[in-house]
From TrEMBL:
Biological process annotations from GO: copper ion homeostasis
Every Putative metal-binding domain range: 4-78
A Pfam family hit: ATPase-cat_bd
Cellular compartment(s): Cell membrane
Membrane topology of this protein: Multi-pass membrane protein
Family (UniProt): Belongs to the cation transport ATPase (P-type) (TC 3.A.3) family. Type IB subfamily.
InterPro entries referenced in this protein's UniProt entry, alphabetically: ATPase-cat-bd (IPR021993), ATPase_P-typ_cyto_dom_N (IPR023299), ATPase_P-typ_P_site (IPR018303), ATPase_P-typ_TM_dom_sf (IPR023298), ATPase_P-typ_transduc_dom_A_sf (IPR008250), ATPase_P-type_domA (IPR059000), HAD-like_sf (IPR036412), HAD_sf (IPR023214)
Main location: membrane
Keyword Disulfide bond part of the UniProt annotation: no
Keyword Membrane listed: yes
Transmembrane segment boundaries: 167-186, 206-224, 236-255, 261-279, 418-436, 442-466, 732-753, 759-782
GO cellular component: plasma membrane
Name the record gives this protein: Cu+-exporting ATPase
Length: 792
């Protein structure tokens, strides 16, 4: 009995190495095993035994060319501040162990910051320290683990793959063979004693064999690969019964024409694969549409401030930006497109891209990548790339903001696993029965069972339903990051609202000034400084101050989150913020912004918050949730809030960003599923910590990658509708599961009884997927009309 390698599972042929009471087929597999255990990554083998990839010791591929500047710039996604992001295509990725290992590379090599696998596209994105690790060394490092990256012009171009061309070719071959085989099988169906037909039937049958062979060995190739990978890892996936049916029909057909017993089932086999591939093409197009519809236009409700050479400002849609346009970026705003710095003191925080909070200073003429966040005064930038070509379009799915997988994927996988085992058991029983009743019919019965039971519709249910839900929510200004967020929304039982800018109007406040007269010179400076902040109070105060709006240079800008900021404008130092920030005392628990110039206190702007409309009705509809209010302001409006929210659970004031994050953690430690609603500025940590972070965007210049949802501020009174619609989405998914299973139960029952032919089974198989799509479309539309009257 041959032994198999503990690491890769391949038979041990030439070399047998014993190590740590295990056997390996080569030094490469042993080395990988040692490295994994050295770094406490032995769990790799617990996911799927013998699932490793055998490193090719004969592979002498050199990757030195990757270090050439032109090639490097072509291959990498992002390069700045000692951090580089690169996406490699690795075709050998095939199971959960591969994903786990490739996403644990930073544990093995400290020069790697993080890595993220896209299983469907067989790619891994890696962030690494480029001042310590060369790109060529990174590629060699992966190759030594058996995951050799494929690098060519196609992968370097990073073009979006809308549909696999090879799948279309396979479908075309199967369609051609199916049409012609049906025509050539006509003599077999007609029958009779025609002499000419009798003399040429062998020619027709051989032609049918020739037509069917490329269909079996090429068009069905993906099914063989999927089944083989599953069996190799001791997993019976959904393609195993399909492969058994194909092999059985092909073998039986060859036997019949070789013994002159009959014409075989070549036409049925070609038709089977044609309709299966048609269904697969339909399914793949569905997945692609769900993936590629989710670009910046769908998710980011972002406008930008465009400026002309005379300093005139105009807010335009991000999608309308063109190369050569000049834009304005304020403090704590995300750079929306790849740009060149024209004017301003830039300190770029690339933590949303690299995961590392380090400021990179920039000077005029330097390139700034999309996705970086400005920390400092206003910048003037010149656009050098269109939005869809900038790195921002990839930010939403990066590792730093990825949440853990949740229930429905696990349910789908479990159902598919047990579903296949049950189907194979039924097939075996049916084969035994029909072999005794009608041996010839047994082949048709078995093939029909295996074909009709393919759970394509089952696999399609969740992503297609959630995709529709995401589009409907997006049309109603509730921009959801991904499908898993919808599931998490449905499980929320505790809501945490930030007060300022979330349940209050960010641009509407009753403001009164108390203090000494402020000169026109100082007012212009203060207004210009306020323009640099995204805090709701600063925005309100900017609109309130009656002074000419001049674009004045800001120097030495410093902001303390949740407290205030200071900077020099035209030679004078200003401090704007809370009472403690300016060294003053707040009276009567008021909400106020204090202003100081140099060492002289000028005065304070006292705010009376204006709450959003229909909040009382909203909180009545949220009785089933635990409602909490957090605020960085004082408790001056506590009684008003209690009147407005009689079912409030907790209210906390004078909360710093750290306090808000810790409050979220407290609720989660009590097993609550928490959704945090904040303005996305001082609430970034709490938004990221919560199970669902909902960033409220009144001013669409603000952008918060650490949130799961971006919600238009005007839609807050309708929050209960979004939550209910998310719960409806789960119900729809469960109903589609039920429809898929019901279809299979009915279909398999008739197949076992011998009343369904393999060809008919292949035809109705994609119909089940279409029925799921139709049901999902109608049901999501119907439920949406209950909550949202206007769908644009």
């Amino acid at each position: 009995m041959s032994e198999n390698c503990f690491h890769c599972g391949q038979p041990i042929e030439n070399e047998r190495i014993e190590f740590d009471e295990k056997v390996f087929c080569c030094n490469g597999c042993q080395s990988v095993y040692e490295i994994l255990n050295l770094h406490n990554l032995g769990n790799f083998y617990e996911f799927n035994k013998s699932s490793g990839i055998r490193p090719n010791s004969d592979d002498t591929t050199q990757f030195d060319y990757l270090d050439a500047e032109d090639v490097f710039n072509k291959v990498v996604d992002f390069h700045e501040g000692g951090t580089t992001l690169v996406t490699f295509k690795i075709p050998v990725i095939h199971c959960s162990s591969c994903i786990w290992l490739l996403e644990s590379l930073n544990t093995i090599n400290p020069k790697i910051k993080y890595s993220q696998v896209n299983f469907t596209r067989k790619t891994v994105q890696i962030a690494y320290k480029s001042d310590e690790l060369k790109l060529s060394e990174l590629a060699k490092f992966l190759t030594n683990f058996g995951y050799k990256p494929v690098i060519n012009l196609e992968t370097a171009d990073k073009k979006k793959e809308t549909l696999d061309k090879s799948l279309l070719i396979k479908l075309a071959i199967a369609g051609f063979a199916f049409g012609n085989s049906m025509f050539l099988s006509f003599p077999e169906y007609v029958g009779g004693n025609d002499v000419w037909m009798e003399n040429y039937k062998h020619l027709f049958r051989i032609t049918l064999l020739i037509l069917a062979t490329p269909v079996v060995f090429y068009s069905a190739l993906d099914y063989y690969k999927s089944a083989w990978y599953g069996l190799k890892n001791k997993i019976i996936n959904i393609d195993v019964p399909i492969v058994i049916g194909i092999i059985m029909l092909y073998g039986r057909s060859i036997y019949e024409i070789a013994t002159d017993y009959g014409g075989g089932y070549f036409d049925t086999l070609c038709g089977l694969l044609f309709f299966m591939l048609l269904g697969k093409t339909f399914q793949k197009r569905t997945y692609n549409s769900l993936s590629y519809d989710r670009d910046y236009k769908s998710f980011y409700p972002i406008a930008v401030t465009k400026i002309d050479f005379n300093g005139k400002q105009d807010n335009i849609l991000l999608s309308d930006l063109k190369v050569g346009d000049r834009i304005m970026v304020r403090n704590q705003e995300i750079i929306p497109v790849d740009s060149i710095l024209i004017k301003g003191e830039a300190n770029i925080d690339n933590s949303f891209i690299t995961g590392e909070a380090a400021l990179v200073p920039k000077k005029a003429g330097d390139k700034i990548f999309a996705g970086g966040k400005q920390s400092g005064p206003i910048l003037e930038l010149e656009v050098i790339k269109n939005v869809d070509q900038s790195y921002l379009t990839q930010l939403w799915n990066k590792e730093a903001f990825k949440k853990t997988e949740t229930g429905l994927d696990t349910i789908t996988n479990k159902i598919s696993k047990y579903f296949t085992i049950v189907i194979l058991t039924i097939t075996a029983i049916a084969a035994i029965y029909w072999s005794q009743e009608n041996f010839e019919k047994m082949f048709q019965v078995v093939a029909a069972i295996l074909i009709i039971a393919c759970p394509c519709a089952l696999a399609l249910s969740a992503p297609f339903t959630f995709g529709h839900i995401m589009r409907i929510l997006g049309r109603n200004k509730f921009y959801v990051k991904d499908t898993l967020t919808i599931e998490r929304l449905s499980k929320i039982d505790s809501l945490v609202f930030d007060k300022t800018g979330t349940i209050t109007e960010s641009k509407k406040s009753n403001i009164n000034y108390l203090g000494q007269n402020i000169s026109e010179f100082d007012l212009k400076n203060i207004k210009s400084l306020l323009k640099n902040s995204n805090h709701p109070l600063s925005k309100s105060l900017y609109d309130y101050i009656d002074a000419e709006d001049e674009y004045l240079p800001i120097e030495n800008f410093v902001e303390i989150s949740g407290k205030g900021y200071s900077a020099s404008v035209r030679g004078k130092l200003y401090k704007i913020g809370s009472a403690s920030f300016t060294g003053q005392k707040s009276e009567n628990l008021e909400t106020a912004v204090f202003v100081q110039v140099g060492d002289e206190f000028l005065g304070k702007y006292i705010f009376k918050n204006e709450y959003r409309k229909d909040l009382i009705t909203l909180f009545k509809h949220l009785k089933s949730y635990q409602v909490n209010i957090l605020s960085g302001d004082n408790a001056s409006e506590e009684q008003q809030l209690k009147t407005m929210i009689p079912n409030v659970s907790q209210m906390r004031f004078n909360q710093s960003p750290e306090d808000k994050l810790e409050f979220i953690q407290e609720l989660q430690n009590q097993n609550h599923k928490v959704a945090m609603l904040g303005d996305g500025l001082n609430d970034a940590g709490a938004l990221k910590q919560s199970d669902v972070g909902i960033a409220i965007a009144d001013d669409t210049n603000a952008f918060t990658p650490s949130s799961d949802v971006i919600m238009d501020g005007s839609k807050i009174p309708e929050l209960d509708k979004y939550l209910k619609f998310s719960k409806d989405a789960i119900s729809i998914v469960k109903l589609t599961f039920a429809i898929s299973l019901f279809y299979n139960v009915i279909g398999v029952t008739f197949a076992v009884m011998g009343k369904v032919s393999p060809l008919f089974a292949a035809i109705i198989m994609p119909i089940s997927s279409i029925s799921v799509v139709a049901f999902t479309t109608l049901s999501t539309w119907y439920r949406s009309t209950k909550y949202f009257k206007l769908l644009k």
